[in-house]
Amino acid sequence: MSAHIANGRLVVWLTLFIGMMFQIMPLPQVVEAWRPDWLLLVMIYWAMALPHRYSILTAWLLGVMLDVLLGAHLGIRSLALSLVIYIVVLLCQRLRNYPRWQQSLLVACFICIYHVVIFWVQFVVVGATPFNVEMFLPAISSLFIWWWVFWILRNMRRHYKVR
Question: Membrane spanning segments where (predicted)?
Answer without folding.
Answer: 6-26, 38-62, 74-92, 104-123, 135-153
